[in-house]
Design a protein that fits this description.
alpha+beta, 6 helices, 19% strand
Length: 338
């Protein structure tokens, strides 16, 4: 099913012609729960991984485990299913009163009580699939010559930077003939936050403009004053859409904008993939695709519902941005959180 982002409340280039030269094309991935195969582009789905190639593991020792109890991948998925069922019951209520109290049924509570906490794993931790994107579905990928498939995995634990460590692989899909059907899973993971719900993607190209924090002081103040005066929202709610996407701009806000050079050659890196749990926010309607607006009406403030299809939550509900060096695909990628 396609996804179509409505127009913004205003034409930014008409109001500020100087933004026209700064426009970038990004691809909103619009992940939605499904049953992806290794031949599909997906978030959290199975990878087209060669059976002869070792599965990636995280060998770092700085795996943060407190205060979230550790659990198995299977138990994490079970908790996600029970939470989704609880939230769906809440959305079906005729009144939005009591949104802050969405109880589990006695049967669900009994199942949750049987989930046992796991010990912190020793040694390298198996990584989990986060994204698989085929060039045929996402033309904005710009892979290395001869490649047409991007695969991203991450460690299901937060590290010293507050994010999971990621691993990137570019490959040629036609060269994979014998697929690894049962990849290893970590013995324990950090809660449910880094186990994506398997989702198919529905890519859509959109135009983005830079965050106000990347612009000069005078321009920034004009944009922010105009957005609040004309629409009662912040400029950041107009320039860059939330959610998972390829390319585009970084939505600075947690910090001021800062340089992110390639650690090998110093070339400024560019955003490749943004991983974010929230596809839109309750009070900013213009980022909700037309096709999802009816479902969204059933949910109240503070409720995720269809706005969090992957059930990912990076740190305190932030975005993890993977960046690459435009000078060479061989150089290591970097990642930041905003």
């Amino acid at each position: 099913m396609t996804r179509t982002t409505p127009p913004r409340p205003a034409d930014l280039e008409a109001a500020f012609p100087e933004l026209a030269s700064l426009a970038r094309t990004a691809t909103r991935l619009h992940p939605r729960p499904g049953i992806p195969s290794p031949q599909d582009s997906s978030i959290g789905g199975p990878l087209l991984w060669p059976a002869s190639e070792p599965w990636p593991h995280c060998g770092e020792v700085a795996h943060h485990t407190s205060p979230i109890p550790l659990m198995s991948v299977a138990d994490a998925r079970l908790r996600q299913r029970l939470a989704a069922a609880r939230d769906s019951r809440a959305a079906a209520r005729p009144s939005r009163e009591g949104w802050g109290y969405n109880p589990y049924t006695p049967e669900e509570r009994a199942i949750l009580e049987q989930i046992q906490a796991q010990d912190k794993p020793e040694g390298p931790v198996s990584m989990l699939p986060v994204a698989q994107l085929y060039l045929r579905d996402v033309p904005g990928l710009r892979p290395p010559e001869g490649s047409d498939l991007l695969q991203v995995l991450w460690c299901p634990f937060e590290h010293d930077d507050g994010m999971p460590t990621t691993a990137l692989f570019w490959r040629t899909a036609a060269a994979v003939s014998d697929i690894l059907l049962a990849p290893p899973e970590p013995a324990a993971i950090y809660g449910v936050f880094y186990v994506p719900e398997p989702c198919l993607v529905h890519p859509e190209e959109v135009i983005e403009y830079p965050s106000a924090l990347e612009l000069g002081k005078e321009m920034r103040e004009r944009l922010e004053r105009w957005a609040v005066t004309e629409f009662g929202i912040e400029y950041l709610d107009l320039c860059i859409p939330p959610g998972c996407k390829v390319g585009g701009y970084i939505n600075w806000g947690m910090t001021d904008a800062y340089p992110t050079p390639c650690p090998t050659c110093g070339t400024p890196t560019e955003p490749l993939l943004t991983i974010s749990g929230k596809e839109w926010y309750f009070d900013v309607h213009h980022w909700i695709p037309y096709e999802d607006q009816a479902d969204n009406l059933a949910w109240g403030p503070g409720q995720d519902g269809p706005a969090r299809p992957t059930r990912i939550c990076v740190s305190d509900d932030n975005a993890q941005i993977i960046q690459i060096c435009p000078a060479s695909p061989e150089h290591p990628h970097t990642q930041i959180m905003q």
